[in-house]
Design brief:
Oligomer: heterodimer
Number of helices of chain A: 3
Helix content of chain A: 10-25%
Structural class of chain A: mainly beta
Largest interface: A-B, 59 and 63 residues
Shape of chain B: globular
Strand order of the largest sheet of chain B: 2-1-3-4
CATH architecture of the largest domain in chain A: Beta Barrel
Order of helices and strands of chain B: HEHEHEHEHHEHEHEHEH
CATH topology of the largest domain in chain B: Rossmann fold
Radius of gyration of chain A: 34 Å
Number of domains of chain B: 2
CATH superfamily of the largest domain in chain B: Nitrogenase molybdenum iron protein domain
Helix content of chain B: 40-55%
CATH architecture of the largest domain in chain B: 3-Layer(aba) Sandwich
CATH class of the largest domain in chain A: Mainly Beta
Number of helices of chain B: 10
Strand content of chain A: over 45%
CATH superfamily of the largest domain in chain A: Porin
Distance between the termini of chain A: 59 Å
Chain lengths: 418, 306
């Protein structure tokens, strides 16, 4: 308010100084006219300053709390929207969630060191839009082995030419299961083929860059992805002395609705990179590579009217793995699984899975197994699962186990890709 | 072979540029789709993602939806976190800068409407699947329909300024038909003002408030939580005590519990369309109310004898 008064005074003074100077050379009636003009200006400025002071006073008065259920007869464009509790800086916080995976195992398995009871993983997720051009997703996984960045990447989703670019540490686009975090698996474990040929729990997950593009066509959804990674995992491991040697992953995914409630999803994947393990057939001085081929198919049925009560999903993934180097192609190891899951009530799911996979380093040893599982969802944020698993390992060891799993989450967790 | 593949790819990539000059509008629900068609006429090509007979909270973010969103000039959403479980991955995977939140081609239809049940104080999931930004089923009220239509009309005019007069004329026509509808619906519901009813989910607060019905309970013990025996028994007792006889259910919920309650109280279960397309008769936004009000008035007449 003081500022307005000072300005008011200055304006009047300036007007008096510059406005009155020519008046000395003019007749008396002109001086009176000038005085009238000054008075008029003083009046106008006074009114404007009073109005501004009134506005300032109103702004400084505490506003009553918003009344959510009240709406003006003709609402201004944003008046009602602003009633939402969005008026603080917390809106810029990312979606944050913590998801725990608690697993119990009973039975005998000489090839497994899984504890009887264990909090096998706690995943903390932070997800938000970075700016008008990108979003970022971070998934930190704490397990008995320690805390690690399971994934942490930026996604540029507004690039020209329909490109989608990701950079950071990611689970590679190889098949279906490799992209999935533990809590969205329909089983309490990962299939044998994943354990033997695609890196187990960790999967193919390394720092890298991913570019994908929709191939627009009238027949189906078609998406092509190309990725390059540098890092160390159970299947691929970069050489510290050859930093240009990367792991490359490519995938082509096709999807089509059959009816409004059924669809088919088919993908082919390829990965090539430096092997994480030496191949016996090669001299130690020769760097070996690993080549993976994958094929996956998923059939889904979910009638829209009964979507919260009934659904069925059948999925298979086939993986071929072989070591390769210059002038050398090793023996191919093949594995696959076939799984079906049926939701028979709002909170209940039942399913079965068949597993078969050769071991990567000795394809003559073929592990076989099968599981039955039953899942109960108290809510979408909490699921309890029991799974019976029988495994016949290639070396003759037999295992019968019962797995008990509880997955539970708190906070806001971003929706998953279909 | 290579020539064939090249030709196929060239054709595939050329498809978007062949499209005509219509604005491609994608809406998350059929209600928004109906309004967009009504206001846009032949200047727009509208695709609605979720069907009117499916639960809009639980929609699969199918790749076929990604294709639709990737080609859109305008995306209209219900907002208030209604689509929180399925829209974000579609937006990311669409690779379409035009319809990202904050862009010119993104319209949150809830921005100018009347929102009910905005929670206050501490919100936890112990309260069920609550919507922190208020009840998102706001489209079930003609006044909000008018506000949504205004917002859509303004957005269409912003994106296609040469057709502004056309959209204005269509809005005026819609407004007139809606006003006439409101008179019909108010008259049909007038005898039942204050009647106590029960609904399955909290889908109807705007609708019931507008037409003067008193929702005294819900089949769900908490939003999104399936009915429990304890809650069902309590609800039966309360309905008997308060004389409520009608249970309104959305088409995607199981009728077993509502039917059991109805049998206990000698009442009636009524499946209403919560969205355009929720029944065959509810073919557009105005017919949605025509259908629901006619069904409701008939059922209320039976249970109240008025």
């Amino acid at each position: 308010m003081g500022m307005f008064r000072v300005r008011h005074g200055l304006v009047v003074a300036v007007l008096l100084v510059f406005g009155s100077a020519p008046a000395f050379a003019q007749a008396q009636p002109d001086a009176r006219a000038l005085q009238d003009q000054i008075d008029q200006l003083k009046k106008e400025f006074g009114e404007r300053i009073a109005a501004l002071e009134a506005k300032l006073a109103a702004a400084q008065t505490p506003m009553p709390p918003p009344t959510p259920d009240v709406v003006p007869a003709t609402p201004p464009a944003t008046a009602i929207g602003s009633q939402a509790p969005l008026g603080n800086a917390k809106v810029f916080n990312p979606d944050m969630s913590v998801i725990a995976n608690f697993i119990g195992v009973a039975g005998k398995n000489d090839h497994s060191d899984q504890p009887s009871l264990g909090l096998s993983e706690v995943e903390a997720a932070f997800q938000a839009i970075v700016d008008p051009y990108a979003r970022a997703d971070f998934f930190l996984a704490a397990s008995p082995e320690g805390l690690e960045v399971e994934e942490g990447f930026i996604t540029f989703n507004t690039l020209p030419a329909g490109l989608l670019l990701k950079a950071g540490k990611m689970r590679a686009e190889f098949g279906k299961v490799n992209r999935m975090h533990t809590h969205i698996l329909p089983w309490a474990d990962r299939p044998l083929v994943t354990q033997n040929l695609v890196g187990g729990e960790e999967g193919i997950s390394m720092p890298g860059v991913s570019v994908s593009r929709l191939i627009q066509n009238p027949a189906l959804f078609l998406e092509a992805t190309g990725e390059a990674y540098y890092g160390f995992g159970d299947v691929f491991a970069s050489r510290e002395d050859e930093k240009s040697k990367l792991t490359y992953v490519g995938r082509l995914r096709g999807y089509r609705d059959i009816t409004e409630g059924t669809n088919i999803d088919i993908g082919g994947s390829y990965a090539f990179g430096p092997s994480a393990q030496d191949v016996d057939a090669l001299p130690p001085s020769v760097n070996s590579n690993t080549e993976l081929f994958g094929f996956d198919a998923t059939f889904r049925y979910r009638p829209l009217r009964r979507a919260i009560y009934k659904r069925f999903q059948a999925r298979t993934e086939l993986v071929w793995s072989r070591p390769r180097s210059t002038g050398f192609v090793g023996e191919r190891a093949f594995g696959y699984y076939g799984s079906g899951e049926y939701q028979f009530a709002r909170r209940w799911f039942a399913g079965a899975r068949y597993d078969q996979s050769a071991q990567a380093l000795d394809p003559s040893l073929v592990d076989k197994g099968g599981s039955f599982f039953l899942t109960y969802w108290p809510s979408e944020f909490n699921q309890i699962r029991g799974q019976y698993r029988r495994t016949n390992y290639g070396d003759g060891v037999k295992a019968n186990e019962f797995l008990f799993q509880m997955n539970f989450s708190i906070g806001a967790h971003g929706a998953h890709v279909f | 072979m290579i020539r064939t593949i090249t030709l196929f790819l060239a054709l595939a990539l050329a498809v978007p540029s062949i499209a005509n000059a219509q604005l491609k509008v994608v809406t998350t629900t059929e209600d928004l789709g109906s309004l967009a068609r009504d206001l846009g006429g032949d200047k727009v090509a509208v695709t609605a993602l979720a069907k009117g007979y499916q639960d809009p909270h639980f929609v699969d973010p199918k790749p076929s939806f990604i294709l639709a969103v990737s080609r859109a000039d305008l995306l209209i959403v219900v907002g208030r976190e209604m689509e929180i479980g399925w829209l974000p991955p579609l937006l990311t995977s669409s690779r379409n800068a035009k319809i990202q939140p904050g862009s010119k081609g993104y319209l949150d239809a809830s921005a100018t409407v009347k929102i009910l049940e905005i929670p206050t104080g501490q919100i936890t999931r112990a309260m069920g699947d609550v919507h922190p930004l208020g009840n998102p089923h706001y489209w079930l009220e003609p006044g909000n329909g008018r506000r949504m239509a205004q917002a859509i009309k303004d957005k269409l005019a912003e994106l296609s300024p040469n057709d502004k007069a056309y959209f204005e004329q269509r809005y005026a026509d819609f407004d007139q038909r809606l006003a006439a509808g409101e008179k019909r619906w108010d008259a049909a519901m007038a005898p039942y003002k204050g009647t106590k009813i029960v609904t399955y989910h909290r889908s109807w607060p705007n609708f019931m408030e507008r037409f003067g019905l008193n929702v005294m309970g819900y089949v769900e013990p908490k939003p999104g939580i399936p009915p429990s025996p304890t809650h069902t028994i309590e609800l039966i007792d309360e309905m008997k005590r308060q004389g409520a006889k009608l249970i309104v259910v959305e088409p995607y919920f199981d009728l077993k519990t509502p039917q059991a309650i109805s049998n206990q109280i000698g009442g009636k279960v009524l499946v209403l369309a919560p969205s355009v397309g929720g029944s065959k008769e509810a073919a557009d936004y105005i017919k949605l109310f025509d259908y629901d009000i006619a069904q409701l008035a008939t059922a209320l007449k039976q249970v109240t004898g008025k």
